[in-house]
């Protein structure tokens, strides 16, 4: 089975600080990669996704992520966070030959005004 | 409004009493899935369905059943709930499993407590 690791469980930043959340997966084949976000009291929603092509993908709200195949990583970044980015962030993976999804344990981000 | 709905949103039950959590989507999506979210474990996939009458096990299917008789509905059945099934459950759907449509839309969650 595949697995997804998110090493940062809780992150606290001040507004305007830069953000990088780590995501590593274990699977040797071709994968599809996702970041989902869950704002307080809201549904999980897609931030961005990678299927193929340019390994640097841009998502909503100024987020981006870089796929580094050699490191099995798909880290999420944002140059300058805002208080409204306070949320829980989940990395997810599925193989492009399967329909099963694997999520990481999530990273809780708190942005202090 | 396009959405995934789940009922009930909160449920407290006792060990062994069969229950069903309903999930419905109004987007004509082919793919539907159930997850459970537990502290420190993230989301784990229970079952998924590629289309009507097509279901398959996810990572943690033990103790659960599903059915997909209609495209819009994907109920989760716990025949004999146990305390270790106390969790937050999410239903999700996506248009298909081809690349362009792989965005999953999640329901609001059902918080289940089994005593």
**Mean pLDDT over the residues of chain A:** 92
Q: Can you give the helix content of chain B as a percent range? A: under 10%
Number of strands of chain A: 12
Q: How much of the sequence of chain B is in beta strands?
A: over 45%
Give a written overview of the molecule.
- The complex is a heterodimer of chains A (113) and B (115).
- Chain A has 113 residues and is mostly beta strands.
- Chain A is built from no helices and twelve strands.
- Helices cover 0% and strands 53% of the residues of chain A.
- In chain A, a hairpin with a 5-residue loop joins strand 7 and strand 8.
- Chain A is globular and about 45 Å long.
- Chain A starts with a strand and ends with a strand.
- Chain B is mostly beta strands.
- In chain B, 0% of the residues lie in helices and 50% in strands.
- The chains are: A mainly beta (113), B mainly beta (115).
- Chain A binds chain B through residues 1, 4, 6, 32, 34, 36, 43-46, 49, 51-52, 90, 92, 96, 99-106, and chain B through 4, 31, 33, 35, 40-45, 48, 50, 56, 58-59, 90, 92, 97, 99, 102-109.
């Amino acid at each position: 089975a595949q697995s997804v690791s998110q090493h940062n469980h809780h992150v606290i930043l001040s507004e305007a600080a830069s953000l990088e959340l780590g995501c590593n997966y274990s699977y040797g084949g071709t994968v599809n990669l996702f970041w989902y976000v869950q704002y307080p009291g809201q549904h999980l929603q897609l931030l961005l996704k990678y299927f193929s092509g340019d390994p640097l993908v841009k998502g909503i709200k100024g987020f981006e992520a870089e796929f580094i195949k050699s490191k099995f990583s798909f880290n999420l970044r944002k140059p300058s966070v805002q208080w409204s980015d306070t949320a829980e962030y989940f990395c997810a993976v599925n193989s492009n030959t399967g329909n099963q999804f694997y999520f990481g344990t999530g990273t809780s981000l708190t942005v202090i005004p | 409004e396009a959405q995934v709905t789940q009922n009930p949103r909160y449920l407290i039950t006792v060990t062994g009493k069969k229950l069903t959590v309903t999930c419905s989507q109004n987007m004509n999506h082919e793919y539907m899935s159930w997850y459970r979210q537990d502290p420190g474990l993230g989301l784990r996939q229970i079952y998924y369905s590629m289309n009507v009458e097509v279901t398959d096990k996810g990572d943690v299917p033990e103790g659960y059943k599903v059915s997909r008789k209609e495209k819009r509905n994907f109920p989760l059945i716990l025949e004999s709930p146990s305390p270790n099934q106390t969790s937050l459950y999410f239903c999700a759907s996506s248009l298909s499993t081809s690349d362009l449509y792989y965005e999953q839309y999640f329901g609001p969650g059902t918080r289940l407590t089994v005593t």
